[in-house]
Each structure stands twice: as structure tokens, then as C-alpha cells.
Amino acid sequence: QVQLVESGGGLVQPGGSLRLSCVTSGFTMDYYAIAWFRQAPGKEREAVSCINHSDSTTYDADSVKGRFTISRDNAKNTVYLQMNSLKPEDTAIYYCATTSPNRCDGGTFSGFYWGQGTQVTVSS
Description:
This protein is mainly beta. Helices cover 0% and strands 50% of the residues. The protein is built from no helices and 11 strands.
């Protein structure tokens, strides 16, 4: 059974940092690209960051470039999203997912298997 479980969300002040984790099971993560998406209230879900399985190259949305860093530890079946310099507009539920197609090129991917999400709130 494929599972992705997010953790690490919470309430943080503007300018602060959080690190999200996505622990996977039920499949060999080494062979899959993994992405983070987010959905803010009243908005569509959007791709934030993605990391390829073959060479760990990444994709980041323009809105988070230079602030967010995605990484993976295949030995721990875990993907991380380090979020720095957080802004109120980063407030959303963050989801990790496998991607379709199985690559992050140019941000042209959608989610396939999804986690349940973790809430991130940036507020003073």
C-alpha cells in the first residue's frame, strides 16, 4: 500500500523557517520523482518544488525560488522541504506526492499518489 505522510507544519512568524518531511512507504522511492504542492484557502492547488529520482535535479516555482529547498534521503524514504524567509502568502496546506509523469522537468507534472497534507501558517 502506497503511503506518503507529511509532518513539520505549524505556526511561524514572517521571516521564520520550517522544515517539512514526507515519509514514504509501499514503493521504492529511489525510482520516483517526488513533489511538494500547496493549496491556500480559496485557491487552486499549485506545485511548489519537485526532485527527480535519477540525478536529484529539482524544480522550484518562481514564488519560492531562493527561499525553499527540496531534498531527498532515499535511505530514509524521506523527502524534505526546507522553507526559509516565510511570508504570509506561503500559508497553505502542503502536500507531498509522486508525480505523473515521473519527472520534474519544467514544472509540467501533476500529483499521482498523495499524502494527507500538513498545515503551514505564517502570521504574526
